[in-house]
Amino acid sequence: MFSTIWRICFSLKANPNRSRLEKRAADIAEFADLRNAYVRHEKQADWLRTPNEAFGGQTPLELLMSGRVRDAIIKFRRLQAGQPM
User: Fold this and answer.
1) Radius of gyration over alpha carbons of the chain, in Å?
2) For residue 67, what are the contacts with CB-CB under 8 A and spacing of at least 6?
3) Which has the closest alpha carbon to 46: 61, 63, 31, 28?
4) What is the pLDDT of residues 25-52, one digit of tens each?
5) Which of 19, 39, 72, 84 is a Cys-bridge partner for 63, taking CB atoms 3.0 to 4.6 Å apart?
6) Is 5 exposed, middle or buried (CB count within 10 Å of its CB: 0-12, 13-18, 19+)?
């Protein structure tokens, strides 16, 4: 996860898509903050790789790798609030 953030941040310096990349980096950081706040450290690796009904049966990692970070954040926040999926 950190290598992804580093690559995005590094590519921001001289990139015409800077705004889009900045948003993506901010989304990844927000997701990491949510995960760190609500998933115990020793369970995080398993949680990322475990299919979750709240994520449509996908793993959180699959959502992240498919570029759906914002979707993962929204679903995570709904889970926090106890809202139906």
Assistant:
1) 14
2) none
3) 61
4) 899 999 999 999 888 999 999 999 999 8
5) 72
6) middle
